[in-house]
Amino acid sequence: MPDVHNTLYELVPADGSAIGNQSRKERLTSTVKGAREVAFDKARDTVFEQGKLAKGKGRGGSVRRTERHNGEQSRYKPTPSHRATHG
Spans of biased composition, class Basic and acidic residues (predicted)? Predict the structure, then answer.
């Protein structure tokens, strides 16, 4: 299985805007064959511990890249349907 941690991080917009957890889960499972919710939760926790992600504003359920990581370019290219749900 590809590195779920990096893939999960790359699914978060590089511009610092937030993305909902449900959207990230759907994108991860469509991007990484065989990814399950358990893998998602473990990867999310690891990326948080690394300081690369922070909780988004509001009632929770979303994340954003931290400022020190905002300049990194994502290799993930959203499909038109993903752009519609994010933007």
Answer: 64-75
Higher pLDDT, 86 or 40: 40
Those residues whose C-beta lies under 8 Å from the C-beta of residue 40, and which sit 6 or more positions away, are 4, 8, 24, 25, 28, 29
Q: For residue 32, which of 75, 74, 1 has the smallest C-alpha distance?
A: 1
Residue 77 tokens read as 């290219």
- Predicted TM-score of the model (pTM): 0.59
Dump the DSSP string for 53-79.
EEEPSSSSSEEEE-GGGTTSPP-----
pLDDT category at 87 given cuts 50, 70, 90 is very low
Question: Token pair of 40, please?
Answer: 């998602």
